[in-house]
Amino acid sequence: MTDFSQTFAENEILLTGANGFVGKVILALLLDRYPQAQRVHVLVRPRGGASAAERFRTDVLDSPPLRPLIEKAGREAVERRIQVYEGDASQPLAGLDESACGALAGRVKLILNCAGLVEFFPPVDRSLDANVTAVERLLETARRLGAKLLHVSTCYVAGKADGLIEETEPILGFYPRRRDAADDAFDARRELAQCRAAAERAADGPAGRRRSEALIELGRVRSSRWGWVNTYTYAKSLGEQALAAQTDVEYAIVRPAIVESALRYPFPGWIEGGRTAAPLVLMALGGLLDWPVRPDLSLEVVPVDMVAAATLAVAALLLAGRQRSVYQLGASDVNPYPMEELVRLLAAEAESNGNRTAAAPFWLDPFRRLRFLDPMQAEKRRRTLRRRIERCRGALESLGLKSRAAALRALDLQTTFRERTLAEYLPFIFDNRYVFEAHNIREAYAELSADDREKLPWEPEAIDWPAYWRACQIAGIEKWVQPEAVRKWAFQL
Question: Which of 171, 218, 120 is nearest to 428 (CA)?
Fold first, then answer.
């Protein structure tokens, strides 16, 4: 049985992505639960005129997830246990200079990579830099430092799929449309080279918005060709295959499902920015009643503190040489929560808040009720509502009621934006019924001491989903999701 306290005391860690949602909680949890961990090295990229140290203080030390730790241990004590290095994971040796590499070599035994670009359809060159090139550069860094590499990926590298997603699926040569183990149509190195070359050609084209649109479209085309649902999951899979293709750096891959608000640590409901489920929650609370979802499908949500705890457990096992290659972190294989129950809960919350009719006035949609639709039915409903809006706008303008006509114009734009947003979520709420096998992490926890299981709890089977969604997800999104994100989504009239 691995002694986690001793493991973290004897092995220093270099953490990337500490200023991200998951990275903050991992850092805080490690320092809080294992005071024996004397030093954590953090790689931070300077940006916007702020140095790495300044960004770390502002984005991490002053953030809510670190507050309970700092209140308990004191800010100076926490700062003494953290060494900040300026760098960029996508640069050679992660941007570390020779002096830094010399200082870290032989001391850092594990690189924990939480960095990445979590956007569905960004310009493909940005996604490749953050999710593939960074893995290649961190492998170089691990070799230079004599360290192992723990990489945080995503369960959704599975792409278009339906049913149980097993952890034993081979990584090399994988693509979602692969017929069987003998299907060798996909070669990650060749695909990466071709995509990078195409991205360079697109980047040499017209500047500005047209260039960005060309790079976004390139990502859509390349990912869809092989069966991935978006550019993000395509790039993440290529990053995994870069890791699996080499043999001289010991590694493990952690694949969380949808990482959402904290169940307990640092406190219930902590969430940062517009996480994956936030747009769905905000649309529901705004009165959306037409849902293109499969009622029996479960949205694979895992609280961020459970993801952080499981990741640290895998880190200790990797340091001890007892790791598996892949650990999927999902909940539906032991504790599913069907979309029908979730959507009904969200609709009930909207009604209790007086937002049941916010999406469309009664006189535009007199038979409003909660509906579960397929995408074609949803499109038909959309066209009907838009025709009614257009007719009412025309009538109001002819009567000189311009302010009311403008309100209908805003409703039309809001409806269009909601539809576009839902279209990006269809792979997760309608097209694919994902059930991620999480056998490896349960097997690992069965061998942990009771003390380590208490410090790093992984127990998705015990989550009361309705209570979690009300007290953590909904409350957390309403409190912590940034107002500018709400304005961007334009879910409210």
Answer: 120
Residue 26 tokens read as 């991992």
Low-confidence ranges of the chain (pLDDT < 70): 274-275, 354-368, 482-493
Give per-residue pLDDT as tens, 37-95. 989 999 999 988 899 999 999 999 999 999 999 999 999 999 999 999 999 999 999 99
Q: How far apart are CA 317 and CA 448, in angstroms?
A: 10
Q: How far apart are CA 232 and CA 247, in angstroms?
A: 25
Give dist(CA 130, CA 227) in Å, integer: 21
Domains annotated on the chain, with CATH: 4-257+300-333+437-462 (3.40.50.720), 275-299+337-432+465-493 (no CATH)
- Rounded Cα distance between 302 and 262, Å, is 9
Enter the tokens of residue 306.
């459970």
What DSSP state is assigned to residue 184?
Answer: -
Q: How far apart are CA 459 and CA 269, in angstroms?
A: 17
At 362-408, the pLDDT tens digits run: 555 555 688 898 988 888 887 887 788 788 888 877 888 778 777 77
In terms of pTM, does the model score above 0.85? yes
Q: DSSP characters for 67-123?
A: HHHHHHH-HHHHHHTEEEEE--TTSGGGG--HHHHHHHTTTEEEEEE------SS--
CA 342 from chain center: how many Å? 20
